């Protein structure tokens, strides 16, 4: 399986943080104590430089990054390297720069799996991590804190010195064993000579840690629980993607030129872009909609009720104003029934007659009536 396509249930994600830290420190000659110290992104860049020498522009890497925008620059360098090498791996920068241990541990577990898939777990002795860090910003300060190589060299020299000792003592012990064997043959033919092991006398036994034995039933229940959790995570991710797509569609609709300045759209955007879940956000959105509705009501003309229109017709009929009666007749056609129109004029059909004759005479001949 390719390291770029490993799933969350792969064995790579079960590597402990202590093993990850030991691997990073021994590979890059660093002195990291916590896995969240890799949140800057510089360690990941140098690991890619380790497995792909010359691909990473180390002069752009900042080992002294303290702010989020400086860390983002490191991850941009890393993403450019991924794109150049055609590595299909999404980097969740917003999570990694927060310094949460779990997010950074998962990403470093993936990095270890990727590096091991390329070099097979061997150490590239031709790579000098301290020298490569010299070109990076803050790399010299990191090199000052790096562990010294003297103990490793001392251990290597002691191992080399111990090799001739084993080879030189081998023939001597063989001579001693042969002499003992010959003397014992003369004394007793049934005596058996057991050769002395050189490795058992020179190297102390390595204590092995006790491995806890998990019962089969418990292991099976744990596997089922892991499977259920994986299915639950998959369902949650699908649900998250579904609702995110809906919100994205709403956002695109609100950004259209026809609706961008509408108060209702402004209220929806207020809720969408709220940084925190607070009742004040909903109150602000409701205030925008309420003010918009009040403006709409204030600009609309006041509708006439049948009772009020009847009273206006009676007053105009008493004043005998033909122009006013014509305007009121048009309104009465839409509001009053024929019977109420006649009753509003004192039981006569004068208003109906005016209404029928006005269209024939035209607007300019109203006074002729």
From TrEMBL:
Residues 156-170 have a biased composition (Polar residues). It is found in: Cytoplasm, Cytoskeleton, Phragmoplast; Cytoplasm, Cytoskeleton, Spindle. One of its GO terms (cellular component) is spindle. Its main location: cytoplasm. Residues 134-144 have a biased composition (Basic and acidic residues). Residues 14-116 form the Calponin-homology (CH) domain. One of its GO terms (molecular function) is microtubule binding. Residues 178-190 have a biased composition (Low complexity). One of its GO terms (biological process) is thigmotropism. PROSITE patterns: CH, EB1_C. Pfam families: CH, EB1. Keywords: Cell cycle, Cell division, Coiled coil, Cytoplasm, Cytoskeleton, Microtubule, Mitosis. This is Microtubule-associated protein RP/EB family member 1C. It comes from Ceratopteris richardii (Triangle waterfern).
């Amino acid at each position: 399986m390719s390291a770029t396509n490993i799933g969350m249930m792969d064995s790579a994600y079960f590597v402990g943080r202590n093993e990850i830290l030991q691997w990073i420190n021994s590979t890059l000659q660093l002195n990291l104590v916590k896995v969240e110290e890799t949140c800057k992104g510089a360690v990941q860049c140098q690991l890619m430089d380790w497995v792909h020498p010359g691909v990473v522009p180390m002069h752009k890497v900042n080992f002294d990054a303290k702010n989020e925008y400086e860390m983002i620059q490191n991850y941009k360098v890393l993403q450019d390297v991924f794109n150049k090498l055609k590595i299909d791996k999404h980097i969740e920068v917003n999570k990694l720069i927060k310094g949460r241990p779990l997010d950074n541990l998962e990403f470093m577990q993936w990095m270890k799996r990727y590096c091991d898939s390329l070099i097979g777990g061997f150490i590239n002795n031709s790579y000098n991590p301290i020298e490569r860090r010299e070109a990076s910003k803050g790399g010299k300060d990191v090199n000052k804190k790096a562990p010294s190589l003297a103990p490793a060299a001392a251990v290597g020299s002691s191992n080399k010195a111990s090799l001739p000792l084993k080879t030189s003592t081998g023939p001597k012990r063989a001579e001693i064993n042969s002499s003992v064997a010959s003397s014992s043959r003369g004394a007793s033919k049934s005596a058996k000579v057991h050769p002395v092991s050189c490795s058992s006398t020179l190297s102390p036994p390595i204590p092995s840690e006790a491995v806890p034995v998990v019962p089969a039933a418990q292991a099976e229940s744990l596997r089922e629980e892991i499977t259920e959790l994986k299915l639950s995570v998959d369902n949650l991710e699908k649900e998250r993607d579904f609702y995110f797509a809906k919100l994205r569609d709403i956002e695109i609709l609100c950004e259209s030129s026809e609706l961008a300045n509408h108060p209702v759209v402004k209220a929806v955007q207020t809720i969408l872009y709220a940084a925190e879940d607070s009742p004040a956000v909903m109150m602000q959105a409701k205030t925008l909609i309420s003010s918009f509705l009040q403006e709409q009501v204030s600009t609309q003309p006041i509708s006439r009720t049948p009772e009020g229109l009847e009273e206006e017709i009676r007053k105009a009929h008493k004043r005998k104003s033909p122009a006013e009666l014509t305007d009121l007749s048009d309104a009465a056609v839409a509001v009053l029934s024929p019977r109420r129109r006649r009753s509003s004029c004192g039981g006569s059909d004068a208003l109906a007659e005016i209404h029928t004759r006005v269209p024939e005479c035209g607007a300019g001949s109203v006074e002729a009536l």
